[in-house]
Amino acid sequence: MTVRQRYAAARSWCRRRVVPPWRPRAAWPAFRPTADRGSASVWVLAAGLVLLAAGLAGSMVGAAHVAQHRAQAAADLAALAGAARAVAGHPAACARAGVIAVANGAGLTHCALDGFDLTVTVEVVPPAGAGLHRTARATARAGPVRTDDSR
Fold it and tell me: Do the Cβ atoms of 121 and 109 come closer than 8 Å?
């Protein structure tokens, strides 16, 4: 078989999808035209969209968890800082708790002083890119240690 004949056979093989004459027949699968031609790209696209949706859902859940942990940390620190000023009274304790809550990226929504126990509630808004429209809320209490287990 000359080079020209091989070239012509290869060109006709590409156009007709038949077995080239220089290869054994068992090495090439038979060409079976079906209606499913090109459906693999649709399946790959669908799988990619499913993975993208799962990734977005996972990132939103992660953003909600981070916001909740930030709210709890801000509430704990605000309650401790406010309880240190509980002797000065309700306005001083709640003002200090509010300053610490804002410094930690939260907003103070409730502050109550009962004796020397300070209870604060803070809210943290998740980042706007997270797609969450709710706020994370946390409450913390700080005060002296009780030995009689009355509360």
Answer: yes
CATH code for the domain defined by 62-142: 3.30.1300
Residues 6+ apart with CB under 8 A from 131: 56, 60
pLDDT mean over 7-22: 60
Can you tell me the distance from the alpha carbon of 130 to that of 39, in angstroms, rounded to the nearest whole number? 34
Q: What residue ranges do the domains of the chain occupy?
A: 62-142
Alpha carbons 61 and 28: distance in angstroms, whole number: 50
Alpha-carbon torsion 65, 66, 68, 72, what sign? positive
Question: pLDDT by residue (tens digit) across 31-69?
Answer: 556 666 677 888 999 999 999 999 988 888 888 899 999
Give the strands of the sheet with 136-142, arranged side by side: 107-114, 117-124, 136-142
